[in-house]
Amino acid sequence: MNNVIILLQKESDYTKFKNELTKISSAKIYALDYESHIFLENANIQHEIGDEILSENDFIIIDEITTNFIKNWIPKKLKEEFLLNDVFLPDLLEHELFSYLLSIFTSLSTIKKIINEQPKSRIIDFTQFSKFTESIILEKKNIQRISPNTEKSFYHDNIHLNFSVMKIPLNLKISRKRFQDIKKITTKITKKIIEPKMSEMKNKNILLVNFDPIQFELLLNEFKDHKINVILYNPRKPAVTNLKSLNIIKNSGCKVFDIYELEDSQKIIIQTYQKKIENILEEMFEENKYFQDLLKSLNIESWNTIKNSLKLICKDRLNESIKRIIVLTEFFKVHEIKLILQWAEVGQEEKECIYVGKNFDINSYMLQHGRFLTSKKWTQFSDFTGHFPHKKISFGQFVWGQFTKEFGQAQGYNPENIIISGSPKHDKYFNYNKTNNDSDKILIATTGSMNLSADTTTIDSQLKHDKLIIELFESLKKIPNKEIIVRTHPSPILTEHVEKLFKKLDSKICFVNNQNLIDVISDVDLVLTFNNSTICLDAIALNKPVITIQTDEWTFDEEIVQNKGVMAVRDIQKCEIYTKKLLFEKDFRENFMRESRLFLDKYFANQGTSSKFLAKSISDLI
Question: What is the pTM of this model?
């Protein structure tokens, strides 16, 4: 009898899988992603980690297939058809499309290699890739296809909301459509409280895209002092999320752009364009030969595997973009905007705003929002990460300091358009009344697998983090009179399972995600994190030492490690040694912090005054 192989993914129907398993005495089960591995592990079901079969060269090829598809998935003959007000619509999807396809192509490559190494096996496929599986097995009768509950989705298809009610942390996960419905209601309520009166704004008007008023409170107040009229355009997250954000907006005199009012007035035009693009997509996705050739290095059937789900996602996303592009075009016709400021220029909504703004000769500037990935490993993906992308999107960039400016120049950017402003959101950190009193807390700030290249989307890459977290926690528990607190990375794709992992280790562990980060860091004695997260900079600014546990070689190329801003270690043994030295050896800690501050002084300009500098710079520009 042929061997039986079972393929499982996150979206598989686990109930049917368990039922099927009772009929088989033995089977080789492959988990194709981290979530399916965790399910099998928790159920004590023996299995293989699928992507362990892939080689380093396989990962390079997957990266190439993904980037090549994104560059060429729109046939040249159709490119003009996708223009709306001179905006090339498919370009808006690149950021999310990359991570979506990278994951799928990794799974397809894994399946292909599993079957090629065991060609006579019978396959029970619980994944969305069963058409692909069927196309590469020798005997078509040897496959049993069981459809998954859902298919893979884009990163922002589900919205994660983290907030507190009466100091009780709440975390909600809702659909993108439901979120838009809620946002529409909250916008109407906000409008009644804050009357926009944008028609009265005649001079020095700027548009801020997706800015959090709480995080940039000082900057908004500085704009007011410079008599700059600020309009908040927040298509991803409402500008008003609580009473504090409402008061900040009112006190700073900001206006909130109500996209829904213009949307209603342009409804017929919007629907006409949406229908046109939907028809073009339908026709284009039937050009099977074109897409099969594009993916021939995988398998011609790989196109049929992703065709329908990709088409639906593209329709939904492009319909949203069409709506916003038409609304933004009408908005810019009426309101004289002098400058656009955004912090995530590769985002779908940001690109829409930047490109429409160019039609009205409005320059867009990017404000650095985190520590850039400067290792050469990541520059090839900069079009998707936003770290000075090869496609130069913004007119200029406001960066935190000389290090980032030099990186921008190395990426081919005009140094005259890279303005060193410092970080407005860090003004509160630098102006905070720092103390060096001993604390009874240690903060673990988790990150996770990068998910920016094929070799960082693997099960193993995430398990590497899990293993280090477990070892780190066990190590820190040995230190007397110290409480361990945890802050997970805000990106759910990186840390979706970290909370469950810590709860297994200690059911009473304290999570501080919904607390003010300045208060959290100022109340700890030491911060531990992974791979040089931006929280390293936050901690050093508050005079707290940082140990970073490095999971990959490329992390040692980063400027924060090269310039001794953090204590970079490769393993938990060294981490334990330096943790004790930083906690209990005063001279060692002081010398270390001296080095950290020297790095910080090179990395951040205008410490504590960057909001003033940025507001003055923008005032001069407009």
Answer: 0.91
